[in-house]
């Protein structure tokens, strides 16, 4: 008596669905990656701005660094500048929205502070 082995694998329709999901995920990832790269640039600019001694000085340093690194989401006036002991601390928070489908958005909330 021979046992028949059933074929295993994916149907053509299943392959199409998996392909669409992978392509859509790639498109979303391609939109998220620049926002994260910009976040890293904002963090670097905040670190550089923390070397300033006055609030106006900190904001000017940040704006110059933002102009060099092409940061468009946040500017010097959006920073919170404070002191911890004798050092200047620069903190920030902002959101980025990435449209997905129709009224659906992916909201990225970024926040950080200088060390």
How would you explain this protein's 3D organization?
With 115 residues, the protein is of the alpha+beta class. It has one domain (15-113). The protein is 46% helix and 23% strand. It is built from 2 helices and 3 strands. It has helices at residues 12-49, 55-69; strands at 80-84, 87-99, 105-113. The protein has a 3-stranded antiparallel beta sheet, covered by helices on one side. Strand 1 and strand 2 form a beta hairpin. Helix 1 packs antiparallel against helix 2 (55-69). The protein is elongated, with a radius of gyration of 23 Å. The model has no long low-confidence stretch (mean pLDDT 92).
Q: Uncertain regions: pLDDT < 50 for 5+ in a row? A: none
Q: How many separate structural domains?
A: 1
Spell out the helices and strands N to C: HHEEE
Which value, in Å, is the CA radius of gyration?
A: 23 Å
Defining traits:
115 residues, alpha+beta, 3-stranded antiparallel β-sheet, 2 helices, 46% helix
Short précis:
The protein is α+β, with helices and mostly antiparallel strands and 115 residues long. The protein is built from two helices and three strands; from the N terminus they run ααβββ.
């Amino acid at each position: 008596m021979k046992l028949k082995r059933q074929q295993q694998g994916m149907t053509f329709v299943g392959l199409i669905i998996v392909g669409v999901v992978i392509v859509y995920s790639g498109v979303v990832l391609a939109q998220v990656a620049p926002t994260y790269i910009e976040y890293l640039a904002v963090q670097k600019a905040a670190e550089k701005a923390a070397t300033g001694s006055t609030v106006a000085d900190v904001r000017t340093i940040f704006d110059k660094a933002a102009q060099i690194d092409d940061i468009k989401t946040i500017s010097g006036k959006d920073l919170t500048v404070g002191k911890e002991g004798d050092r200047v601390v620069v903190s920030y928070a902002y959101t980025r929205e990435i449209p997905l489908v129709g009224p659906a958005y992916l909201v990225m909330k970024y926040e950080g502070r200088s060390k």
